[in-house]
Amino acid sequence: MGTIKEIRTEVENLLVTTIYCVIGMDRPSNHDEIVDFIAQDILETADPNEWHSGDVAIGFRRWIEAQVDEVSSTEPDKQRLVDALIDVLAEDIEKGDITVLDELLLKMPYDVLKYALPEDMWADFEDPSECVKSGQHLKSCDDDGFCNNCGFQDDFINDEELLGEQ
Length: 166
Known about the structure:
Number of strands: 0
């Protein structure tokens, strides 16, 4: 087995039987890309005539690492953006303007916001889906329309979405 076509065929068979099946994974949509990567890795790093399933596992690990490296390479740009935004928000807050901060926080998932608070405050913020499921949502609310149980306004809760389609 020395040609790329032969290696690729055997890599595909081993990848499906020794990796995908073992970890309970369906064939991914980028399967061919993974097979090509592993076959090339075997050609470059293993003996093309004496390679084995362990070389396929190593190639698969290297493919995963390459994907992580690709994602990580974009993070410095995101971090630079986050740092710039923090500076702008700090200036805005100092001026008493929390508009941008408020808009950003409203777009964040409820749990992310809740668990960003000190732990002793978590109990003060019930999960809105639990409030809806219990039938208590908006049973007690202030004039501003915010539920006293979960803190959400009726506008922000889609009962069907929270309760699941029935």
